[in-house]
Amino acid sequence: MTKPLHTLLLAAVLGSSMLAAHAEPRALIDTNMGKITVALNQQQAPQSVANFIDYANKGFYNGTVFHRVINGFMIQGGGFSADMKQKDTGKAITNEADNGLKNQKYTLAMARSAQPHSATSQFFINVADNAFLNHQNKTNQGWGYAVFGKVIDGTAVVDNIAKVPTTRRGYHENVPQKPVVINKITILN
C-alpha cells in the first residue's frame, strides 16, 4: 500500500532536519589539561562559527592559552601565547548575541572589548549561568556576548581549568600561574 504524499513529505522534512542536526560542526579543543569537545551552533550563530572554524583551520589557536580564568564565571582563551604576547588577528565580526542563545553553564561565547562588534579570535566557556552576559538591547551596554556553541564532552576538564590558581601578569589579572595551553583546536565535521 502506498503512503499518502503528505506522510512522505513529512518523513522527508523530519529526516532532513534530523540530518541537519547531526551536520552541525564540532570542535575538539585539545589542552594540556585534557580534551573538550564542543558542538557549534552554525544555524543560530553563523558568523561566529565560521570565524572560529577559520581560526582553527589556520592553526591560529595552536599554542595559545586560557589566559583569563575566573572560577564560578568563565575561562577565556584564544588570543595569547603562553608568555602573554597577544597574537595578531583578522578583522572583527558582527556581534550575534541577539540570536536567542543564552550564556549558560558550559556554553561557548565570543569574547570582545567594550565595543559590541569587536570580537576576533578570543572565546570563553561559561562555567556558570551568566544571564547578565545575555543580549538585552542594541546599545553598547545591552548587546551582550554571542553564544555560538556548547561543551558536549569534557566538562570535567573545563571545571578543572576553572579551578587552577591564578595570578597577575603585567596588567593582566586572573592569569593561570601555570599556563593552560590550547595545543590545537580541530574541527571534526
From TrEMBL:
- Keyword Signal carried by entry: yes
Which stretch is the leader sequence?
Answer: 1-23
The EC code for this enzyme is 5.2.1.8
* Class of this enzyme: isomerase
Can you provide one Gene Ontology molecular function annotated for this UniProt record? peptidyl-prolyl cis-trans isomerase activity
The chemistry this enzyme catalyses reads: [protein]-peptidylproline (omega=180) = [protein]-peptidylproline (omega=0)
Quote the InterPro entries the UniProt record gives: Cyclophilin-like_dom_sf, Cyclophilin-type_PPIase_CS, Cyclophilin-type_PPIase_dom, E_coli_cyclophilin_A-like
UniProt family annotation: Belongs to the cyclophilin-type PPIase family.
> What name goes with this protein?
Peptidyl-prolyl cis-trans isomerase
Q: Name its species.
A: Paralysiella testudinis
Q: What is the lineage of its organism?
A: Bacteria, Pseudomonadati, Pseudomonadota, Betaproteobacteria, Neisseriales
